[in-house]
């Protein structure tokens, strides 16, 4: 894919891979021209070097959440090089390698933003997501295009510094998979002595296992994949529980203080509730839709358990997880691909054939 920029007044055109959503090109990704606004005084222009492939990208391209704006150019796990800085940008310099996660802007003045939780922005449009426009304004036709492109424009407040210890080619998934699992684990106060279960050991779950273990928890990985047991133990899990094994599940009732479920599609939550101890809590990440079956609140109420959800994390917290991963030598397990192979990668993710995470190498 070309990395040239074609300028036109206050806009410029670059190459990207996206889905048009129309009847001719459907929802598969094809090379296309993307028109972007030139950087404002508080923004930077970034050349994309690496971009992680998230399961959310597939959901968005396929309009699974019924909010996709086409053309849809995914990608919200970006490692890139700054090639132009606005006049108000002082903390970042031309040539610097930086990270960009799931957001590129927000109102920056509401209570949530001031508290470092820009993902919960209470402004008129909510957070400006890296792709697919505004998060909580379905009536708007405003669109943004993500990291499956040669260049991207980002507000300076949404840039992330990469610790030297992190390998650039594999660090991208920390910007979504890392923060998505780190944030609820941190908010739950996970530490030494905590008994934690991570359900679903894919792109999100394999990061959750490593992060929870580094926090000091005793970590059990829950999966349907018996063949992945040794690999999962290699991530640092203390134990692997097969969710299809009814006896094993019953033997672990009341065993966990906290359960993090990373399954990205509708599933039955009820089998996991009995695994929680008294006043234990379960948080679902990655699923932006209905559970497969209604929640049986009897199981929740009788031991004063709680069930909740979590959406990525703020910029300060995302910087925290980057630093945390560097400090504890945590790295996503990735397979590098070319952007031209993205449709094949999508198919393999849907068929659960990817090991953990794909990263697009756009550095060449």
Which structural class do you get from the secondary structure elements? Answer: alpha/beta
Spatial separation of the terminal alpha carbons: 9 Å
Give the strand content: 25-35%
The dominant shape is globular
Number of DSSP strands? 18
Fraction of helical residues: 10-25%
- Radius of gyration, CA atoms, in whole angstroms: 20 Å
Largest sheet: 7 strands, mixed
Runs with pLDDT <50, length 5+? none
State mean pLDDT (0 to 100 scale): 95
Tell me the CATH superfamily of the largest domain: Medium-chain alcohol dehydrogenases, catalytic domain
Tell me the name of the CATH class of the largest domain.
Answer: Alpha Beta
Following the backbone from N to C, one meets helices and strands in this order, namely: EEEEHEEEHEEEHHEHEHEHEEHEHEHE
Number of helices, counting only DSSP H or I runs of 4 residues or more: 10
Number of domains: 2
Enter the CATH topology name of the largest domain: Quinone Oxidoreductase, Chain A, domain 1
- Label the CATH architecture of the largest domain: Alpha-Beta Complex
């Amino acid at each position: 894919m070309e990395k040239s920029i074609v300028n036109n007044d206050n806009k410029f055109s670059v190459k990207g891979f996206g889905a048009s959503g129309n009847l001719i090109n459907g929802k598969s990704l094809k090379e296309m021209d993307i028109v972007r606004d030139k950087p404002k005084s508080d923004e930077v222009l970034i050349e994309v070097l690496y971009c992680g492939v998230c399961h959310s990208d597939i959901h968005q391209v396929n309009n699974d959440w019924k909010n996709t704006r086409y053309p849809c150019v995914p990608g919200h796990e970006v490692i890139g090089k700054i090639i132009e800085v606005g006049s108000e940008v002082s903390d970042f310099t031309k040539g610097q390698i930086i990270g960009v996660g799931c957001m590129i802007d927000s109102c920056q003045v509401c209570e949530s933003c001031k508290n470092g939780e820009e993902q919960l922005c209470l402004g008129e449009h909510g957070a400006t997501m890296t792709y697919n426009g505004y998060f909580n304004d379905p009536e708007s036709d405003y669109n943004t295009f993500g990291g499956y492109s040669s260049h991207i424009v980002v507000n300076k407040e949404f840039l992330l510094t990469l610790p030297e210890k992190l390998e650039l080619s594999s660090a991208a998934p920390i910007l979504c998979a890392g923060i998505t699992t780190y944030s609820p684990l941190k908010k739950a106060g996970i530490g030494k002595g905590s008994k934690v279960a991570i359900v679903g050991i894919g792109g999100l779950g394999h990061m959750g296992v490593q992060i929870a273990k580094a926090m000091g928890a005793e970590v059990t990985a829950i999966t349907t994949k018996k063949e992945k047991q040794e690999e999962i133990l290699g991530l640092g899990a203390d134990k692997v529980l097969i969710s299809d094994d009814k006896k094993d599940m019953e033997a672990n009732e009341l065993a966990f203080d906290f359960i993090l479920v990373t399954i990205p599609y509708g599933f039955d939550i009820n089998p996991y509730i009995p695994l929680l101890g008294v006043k234990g809590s379960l948080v679902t990440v990655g699923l932006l839709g209905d559970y497969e079956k209604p929640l049986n609140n009897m199981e929740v109420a009788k031991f004063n358990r709680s069930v909740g959800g979590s959406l990525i994390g703020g910029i300060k917290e995302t910087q925290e997880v980057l630093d945390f991963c560097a400090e504890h030598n945590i790295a996503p397990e990735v397979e590098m691909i070319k952007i031209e192979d993205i449709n094949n990668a999508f198919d393999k993710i849907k068929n659960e054939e990817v090991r953990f995470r794909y990263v697009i190498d756009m550095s060449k």
